[in-house]
Amino acid sequence: MYLKRLLAGGVLAAALVLVAPVAQAAVGVTEIAGKDGDGPVTVYYPTRANAQPLKRGPFTLALALDAAPARGNGRLVVLSHGSGGSPWVHSDLARALVDAGFVVAMPEHRADNYKDMSTPGPESWKRRPAEVSRAIDAVGSEPRFKPLLALDKVGMYGMSAGGHTALSMAGGRWSPARMKEHCETDIAEDFYSCVGLAARLNGGIFDGLKKTIALWVIRSRFLPAAAESVRAPRRPAERPPRLRPRGDLRDQPKDRGLLREALAPVR
């Protein structure tokens, strides 16, 4: 019995020794310069350094600032923030990806971030794919990360305008005229998509005025134009297997949104 306990204790101690480096590993963060006049790229990455409290805006994050990177799984994921976003709002997602071995890059989208919101919307949507592509090049040429990454395949995630960016990088096409048409028809049912989160309809006496102002802005900015597609110098991702377009977006039930039912599993 004593021998069994001794062996079990030895196995447990060995297991603790093996997992100790993983438990001590932290998430590193650094900022590198963008290319061609782009804003900075914030990079989250595996490191063996100790994390310290880091204050960024309203957030206090446990990160190892400018620590030496550790080798992970060799893959990069780009996160594209929404309009007016920052590199800190997706820090929990970045941490989960780093814990899985990924390096995560967050480019600051020009004139559509928390420091400068002068041109959100179509102007930014056109620029964003190229900004993502240049951010990949910036991380890939950074001496600290170049030997740790293989860039033949890169992951992409985005939220809100960042989701628009991700779809564009995957080969999606978008139409200012179609957006204008949708908002003119369904602004009351889809006010957030047409206007954003800064205003809302609450059933009050000013709802009519809000819709009138919103439509005036939309008609002035979403001018008729040909459908846009990605012009970034990087090959768009292939369509996921077993997914195919299911009809025109105009054929979808209006209460399901523009994109939710755009792709459906092949039966």
Task: Kindly describe this structure.
The protein is of the alpha/beta class. It has helices at residues 2-24, 91-99, 122-141, 161-169, 176-186, 191-195, 207-221; strands spanning 26-32, 41-47, 52-56, 59-65, 76-80, 103-107, 154-158, 173-174, 228-229, 243-245, 263-265. The strands form three sheets. Strands 3-4-1-2-6-5-7 form a seven-stranded mixed sheet. A two-stranded antiparallel ribbon has the order 8-9. A two-stranded antiparallel ribbon has the order 10-11. A hairpin with a 2-residue loop joins strand 3 (52-56) and strand 4. Helix 3 (122-141) packs across helix 4 and helix 5 (176-186) runs antiparallel to helix 7 (207-221). The longest helix is centred in the N-terminal third of the chain and has 23 residues, at 2-24. Residues 1-24 and 238-267 have low confidence and may be disordered.
Please state the structural category.
Answer: alpha/beta
> Can you say what the CATH homologous superfamily of the domain at 26-170 is?
Alpha/Beta hydrolase fold, catalytic domain
Major beta sheet summary: 7 strands, mixed
Count up the helices: 7
Q: Which stretches are low in confidence, meaning pLDDT under 50 for 5 or more residues running?
A: 1-24, 238-267
Sheet-strand content, in percent, reads: 15-25%
The helix content, as a percent range, equals 25-40%
Distance between the termini: 59 Å
Read across the widest sheet, the strand sequence of neighbours is: 3-4-1-2-6-5-7
Radius of gyration: 23 Å
Tell me, rounded to a whole number, the average pLDDT.
Answer: 81
